[in-house]
Amino acid sequence: MADHRDGLPQGKKGNLLDRSADEQAVFQDPGLPPHRPRTTDVDSGAAKRAERQVALLFAISIIGSILFFVGYFGVRVDGDIYSVTDSAPTAALRLQNLLLGGGIALGMLGIGVGVVHWARTLMPDHELVEERHDVVTEDQRAEAEQIVGTILDESGIKRRPLIRNTLIGAAVLAPLPFVGLLKDLGPLNLTPLRHTLWDQGVRLVRDPSGTPIKASDVTLGSTFHVLPENLMDLGHEEGYLDQKAKAVVLLMRLDPDIVTVTPGREDWNVDGIFAYSKVCTHVGCPIALYEQHTHHLLCPCHQSTFDLANECEVVFGPASRPLPQLPIQVDDEGYLVARSDFTEPVGPTYSQRVIAVNEMEEENGN
Hints:
A hairpin with a 5-residue loop joins strand 7 and strand 8 (313-316). Helix 3 runs antiparallel to helix 4 and helix 3 runs parallel beside helix 6. The protein has nine helices and ten strands. It has 366 residues and is α+β, with helices and mostly antiparallel strands. The strands form three sheets. It has a four-stranded antiparallel β-sheet with strand order 1-2-3-4. The protein has two domains: 39-125 and 145-183; 191-365, Rieske [2Fe-2S] iron-sulphur domain (Rieske Iron-sulfur Protein), CATH 2.102.10. Residues 26-45 are annotated as: Disordered. Belongs to the Rieske iron-sulfur protein family. Its main location: membrane. It is a multi-pass membrane protein. InterPro entries: QcrA_N, Rieske_2Fe-2S, Rieske_2Fe-2S_sf, Rieske_Fe-S_prot.
């Protein structure tokens, strides 16, 4: 007696390919489901509305990119646009951040949602099944070109100039804000990284309060984010942020017995209190992670790790040189002060080569 619960004789099991032709014939390829036309396929009015919606989304992307440039070039925090009052720099900064962030968001969101809406409502949605093959002969290349041309025709980009033109405008403007952001990653002329505001006798102060630090305030295992005291006198229009980015320092205290000190640097620390640049020597990210038990400083961007007990030598990650050390001492009032500026340029290692080339050109020019 046959058991037709699965359409096969009783006792027949195993892979379908191992069965006879008659047994395989029981399982027919159902094929693709019937195509269901969308509203835009049968209603020209709906298609026109969808076209306008796509164009509107691309136009929103264009507006977003323009807003970014308005914030980037038109709004300044130094008082050139707004009257100089106590609240003006803060208001300008908030407006600039709003325009920069909102502009990028609208620029990318508009073009992304627009393309998706275009594909879902106006581009052909018929399901196709075809074998993939290598394009080798000239005839096959010509066939591939014909397929690309067919795709362009079916997408409607040739007969829908409104969508085409707004897409071109959005696609051209959308990447430009990122070019501006890349430019702001650092100065084109890297020579200013050679010097910072640190100098002999400049006090170390807490960031952001500006409170001076005494050696007695720094306990074993503690960490301070510090700045040069003379930075507090600068305004935004005088380069406050640029100078701060170069001069930021991490201050820590270790047991002097576990620290290796290079000859000539014995007086660069104060009873185990060490100061090192906070700018990673890989690509310049701010280092802010300190593992007290291992005495390691970690960069959160690319996981470069520096050994504080061994003059911040690199023990892991892509950084290729130690963090520059700031020589420090104590003044007559017990406050920590710098002995001098950094003895080497701060920042990424690649900047050192640029600085060396610039200095050689200056010497040759003189």
